[in-house]
Amino acid sequence: MTGASIPLSEALNGNKLVITGIDVQGVLRRRLLDLGFVVGNAVEVLRRSPLGDPTAFRVSNTTIALRREESSLIYGEIIGGGEG
Fold this sequence. Notes:
Elements: E1 5-7, E2 16-22, H1 26-35, E3 42-48, E4 55-59, E5 62-66, H2 68-71, E6 74-80
Antiparallel strand pairs: 1-6, 2-3, 2-6, 3-4, 4-5
């Protein structure tokens, strides 16, 4: 499933993605950009909490937890990994 952008909230544990877009404005956009969620950066889905929210992502050698509401607004193209 490469070539299509999906929200980070739909990626599986272990997926590696390249960020293709961020559909957020204002303070949250600035915060996400500061954390490394920038178009072109690689992101890895590390693990979801037992109830599925939040999810831990690795970006710029840092582990960041985002709620589904936030991660559904960041889009990426899968470049590898995933549960199998």
